[in-house]
Amino acid sequence: MRIAVLLSYVAVFAWSSAVLPTGAPHNWADARQMIVVTTDGWQANHGTLRTYVRHGSSWKEEGPAADVVIGKNGSAWGTGLHPLPQDGPQKHEGDNRSPAGVFHIGKAFGYAASQRTAMPYTGLTATDYCVDVDGSPYYNQLVDADTVGKAAVAGSTEPMRRDLHLNGDHLYRLGFVIENNPENRPGGGSCIFAHLWRASDSTTAGCTAMTDATMERLLAWLDPKANPVFVLLPRAEYMRLRDAWKLPPP
């Protein structure tokens, strides 16, 4: 009897291990809001953003589609809520690719002290940095240099108040965190945001950028109680994984 139970357990375990790479969506099954960005392929650096609300088991598109720009070199599998496929490029620090997959949406941020959003919001100061120095104990974290010390942010290329540090740059005037590499694994990619773009023909170092109007709509729409997630995938991957990952219809 014990052997039969053991064999049954092994069979269930083997089945679970077999289906896990396909992507059972247990890590985002409670999401009721989803931002979806699709691109023409792994090398594409422009895409289309759509927003969805889940009613029961069905996703319904809400609001207009919008153009976005992503990493200069396209996209690559990041580390988020999804099981990590073995095929396709893998995200790493400095590759100028936006992470592909499914990710929690973190804090919103901006230059103003407050913003019209229900999301947790941080009004940035001149001493706020995101640390992109591989090997730093603060890698992939937003920190205040007044708290952690100036030495801790030395070499970081991500001062968050870009308007103060980079000649009035507006890119981070509004944005939110895309939680790639949440365990801050060295080399896994850092400081991934949704933020404002310079122009429709621009690209990023790995973030997703958009117009002011699109960002303002997203921040007003996002509801932390709905457990929102951010999805970025090449269209072919989206179609391949849509059913297994319970994604909205294209």
TrEMBL record:
<feature type="signal peptide">
    <location>
        <begin position="1"/>
        <end position="24"/>
    </location>
</feature>
<dbReference type="Pfam" id="PF03734">
    <property type="entry name" value="YkuD"/>
</dbReference>
<protein>
    <recommendedName>
        <fullName>L,D-TPase catalytic domain-containing protein</fullName>
    </recommendedName>
</protein>
<keyword id="KW-0732">Signal</keyword>
<dbReference type="GO" id="GO:0016740">
    <property type="term" value="F:transferase activity"/>
</dbReference>
<dbReference type="InterPro" id="IPR005490">
    <property type="entry name" value="LD_TPept_cat_dom"/>
</dbReference>
<feature type="domain" description="L,D-TPase catalytic">
    <location>
        <begin position="63"/>
        <end position="231"/>
    </location>
</feature>
